[in-house]
Write a sequence for this structure.
């Protein structure tokens, strides 16, 4: 019984200890992400001064976190810093429209989620709106509808700008460069895209690239840490059952030998 208790205790420790360590490591960065979300809610409610205070508090906490743990690469630090500065400006610039303020702080919120998420970051939720607008953009180009084309392209560029910093955190640099090249071509050569079939192919390629990126980021619904727990737990159970089975087999053998010795003594 004591041996079984030891095995059970070891099983619980191996299962819970890594999760506890993981939770303590995440607590600080999770707090930063929560502050970014609260700042966004404040801006959505037009409480710009309160949002500014939260963003200032974020800056203090972020500095402490990075100095203590140094968990980010230089690129990640730069992206977070730029997004944070843009968000702060959105809370203080009285000439900025409410929608632009919301977009800037949303951009910052998505960056913090991309930093902390190991799968399906929040920016992937923009797939539907972005691809819908892009579909309208393609249709306007094919129909030669100049006004609708410019309107849809501007809408697409605005939404893409919101998720762009997060893309740079999650997508390989060479793929981002290809996206940039195609988007810049479409934006810079708008008249050609409206009138030339060869230039409109860039729209098809860009749409395909965007779909592939969204699909790759959403295809795995399971948190990798969950798979680790499943595999680890399964291995422990198998080892435990095997050991218990071996002990039972050995015990049965001992009982059988005892019976044989007893039988011989009687004879």
């Amino acid at each position: 019984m004591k041996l079984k208790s030891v095995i059970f205790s070891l099983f619980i420790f191996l299962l819970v200890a890594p999760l506890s360590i993981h939770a303590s490591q995440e607590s600080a960065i999770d707090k930063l992400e929560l502050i970014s979300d609260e700042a966004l809610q404040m801006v959505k409610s037009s409480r710009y001064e309160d949002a500014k205070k939260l963003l200032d508090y974020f800056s203090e906490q972020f500095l402490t976190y990075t100095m203590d743990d140094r968990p980010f690469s230089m690129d990640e630090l730069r992206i977070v810093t730029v997004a944070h500065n843009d968000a702060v400006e959105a809370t203080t610039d009285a000439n900025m429209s409410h929608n632009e303020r919301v977009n800037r702080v949303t951009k910052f919120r998505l960056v913090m989620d991309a930093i902390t998420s190991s799968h399906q970051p929040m920016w992937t939720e923009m797939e539907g709106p972005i691809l819908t607008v892009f579909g309208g953009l393609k249709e306007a180009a094919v129909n030669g509808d100049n006004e609708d084309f410019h309107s849809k392209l501007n809408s697409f560029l605005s939404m893409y700008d919101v998720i762009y910093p997060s893309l740079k955190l999650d997508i390989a640099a060479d793929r981002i460069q290809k996206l940039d090249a195609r988007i810049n071509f479409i934006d810079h050569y708008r008249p050609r895209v409206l009138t030339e079939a060869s230039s409109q192919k860039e729209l098809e390629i860009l749409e395909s690239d965007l779909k592939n990126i969204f699909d790759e980021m959403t295809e795995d619904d399971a948190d990798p840490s969950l798979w680790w727990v499943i595999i680890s737990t399964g291995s422990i159970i198998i080892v435990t059952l095997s050991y218990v089975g071996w002990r039972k087999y050995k015990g049965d053998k001992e009982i059988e030998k005892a019976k044989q010795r007893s039988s011989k003594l009687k004879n």
Remarks:
- The mean pLDDT is 82.
